[in-house]
Design goal:
This protein is of the alpha+beta class. Helices cover 43% and strands 26% of the residues. The chain starts with a strand and ends with a strand.
């Protein structure tokens, strides 16, 4: 079973399309959105950064038009693995830096700074390598609808 989301083609590129996904469907129905850190982080940053977070470059040889509505899919295990990495790697880096500070007999203030520096180092590491494109981390186009139409034009299933 794939996790599915609907998006709109916003640009055509030589190797594929750029699809904009508005990821608010789950947040809108959630009763805990007022106290949710994910909801706050999803709205953080400038409008340009918001758009970049919601744009996916999807390689395809199909013909598309700007405005086409598409259904995207991704395996749930991939999302779980990425979420685990995003939460565990910073903790691991933070504890490694903290352990190094403890080993070098630094005072508690430096140990705390080492822990925080480890967390930032993990996010810098993940940011640097997040641009590596793998087919497994790229959503697939499941269905293609015409611009604001409800009939299916093409399907990869």
């Amino acid at each position: 079973m794939l996790i599915e989301e609907q998006g709109t083609v916003v640009a055509i590129e030589p190797a594929g399309v750029v699809v904009e996904v508005v990821r608010t469907s789950a947040c809108q129905s959630c009763k805990a959105k007022q106290g949710c850190g994910q909801a706050v982080l999803s709205e953080w940053g400038s409008e340009t950064k918001q758009q970049a977070k919601n744009h996916f470059n999807i390689p395809t040889d199909q013909a598309f038009h700007v405005g086409d509505v598409v259904k995207l899919g991704m395996q749930p295990d991939v999302i779980s693995q990425v979420a685990l990495l995003v939460y565990i790697l910073p903790l691991f880096f933070g504890l490694a830096f903290l352990s190094l500070a403890l080993y070098l007999n630094f005072n508690e203030g430096i140990q705390l700074i080492g822990f925080v520096a480890g967390i930032f180092a993990a996010y810098a590491f993940m940011h640097k390598y997040s641009f590596i494109k793998t087919a497994r981390l790229t959503p697939v186009i499941l269905q293609v609808y015409g611009a604001r139409q409800s009939n299916v034009i093409a399907s990869s299933n």
